[in-house]
């Protein structure tokens, strides 16, 4: 009987140890995890974000790391797949002993990953996931998922206003990717655009990775809108722009934040002229901290930083800074410090933007609008 | 109704690419009885070779296509000789698993070598829209249809009127009898695989100037090719041509009138219906062998 009791106690102890998880065991070195889609359809963004993250780590380690030791980072590929993402979280926490995670890019995957990370008391800072649904799932005042840039609610609203007021488009067709990223932006855009007096002629979804838009665009042309708003990823966006050029459609095209990439201009070719995209960072940013980052990044990589490297940099630097302030590698303590980072500058957004996370874990700043002219994005000033 | 001609044109263009991919798949299945799940990656490889030829080496369109065909034929030979032949010797069903493995291997090789960024091949053809009545097309899209028509005609002629074609058809009908009649089964198998592989590569190369080439781009393509092949009847060449064009047109109409999100569903619905009503496929022959 006694042995049975002992066994039960041992099992219970074992279980509670698992629940407590690794953080307590590793005392001195700061170990952070990174989750990104490094293969699969979202890998283009994932690899750019990784450069920003690695640059943040390099910069931090040159300044002495954290707790007197270099920051150690474990990078896992979640392939833009929720199941792979959840497995990767478990691996990062249980095997590698990370205390906080920067990740990920695909919103649906981020939503799945943070549920698991939270059970381990491991905070996550978005590395590109935009859907507000992920931060909205946080309990107000008790967030475990943070996003150092505005979510789909703010981006959808800003784009709706810009489309109506700056681009003077009164009638718009919305094409959106059938994912929580695309749908959350499209719904928000519709709500705010109509509230501001614009007219949505139609909303049409397409499957992620779709390449052929001739039939869809044939319908768009028949509706004769002033603008087309695309809420989706870069590869499909480039196809839509290129093919609308081929179909002789001369309508203002507006894209969501994922399309803020030089690659899009290259792929879409001359048809990208006049394309407008909401933009949180450009190398020519008026943000002083951002300009310094752009300069240092250029020196290190020999190419310009873009929105991906910028948000990767912000995601990782906020985590490292919060850990430094916490003074110990502990997930819960890092989370407490993340909520008090209102004085820490971000490279994205207008000058003076800081990591002032709200009670749901998001950061609000004005999102800019960039327009392609002569094959280059020109950033309209924030106002 | 005013939009119908454009939808039909879109469908014929996409359908032509389905025809080329599905022909390779159905040839390989019909003659070698190999279900090649890596066929989509053959298509992607063709796309990358076209990018290599047109962008990096600066070839004009035709030599770039010749490069693709030659390389893909050699690649097909290698795959048959070094992967499928040794693995199929013990148990032919192992080849199916091997083709799955090859598919994943190739995707990761593409990712490693070419990177995740989508690429686009330069066609060298005049850019801009061509307007035919109410239909807009580009020279690249017209070229796809033309190339598909030429390839299909050549293939049909070869199959019907040459010794190689005769042995291919004989092998497809009954391997044992073909062997007894003195056909070199090994040589036919190799030739078939080379042709099938070239057809997939050619399709990928043609589409790489219209759509982009990405490491994972073959996954949906191979599924579409299977839809075409199953719908037509495994091994039926003429069936694959009709079914490929048909699927392209149906998808374009569905996208145009019902919405883009329905596009990838419709083909599978048709396949289920066809299998329920006519399991041998629309053009497949019910073969009963003693």
Record keyword descriptors for this entry.
A: 383 residues, Rossmann fold, 2 domains, five-stranded parallel sheet, B: 290 residues, mainly alpha, two-stranded antiparallel sheet, 73% helix, globular
Describe the protein's architecture and organization.
The complex is a heterodimer of chains A (383) and B (290). Chain A is α/β, with parallel strands linked by helices and 383 residues long. Chain A contains 13 helices and twelve strands. In chain A, helix 2 packs across helix 12, helix 6 packs across helix 7 and helix 9 packs parallel to helix 10. About 3% of the residues of chain A have low confidence. Chain B has 290 residues and is an all-alpha fold. Chain B has a domain of 200 residues. In chain B, 73% of the residues lie in helices and 3% in strands. Chain B has a two-stranded antiparallel sheet. In chain B, helix 2 crosses helix 8 and helix 2 packs across helix 9. Chain B is globular, with a radius of gyration of 19 Å. The interface between A and B is large, with 35 and 37 residues.
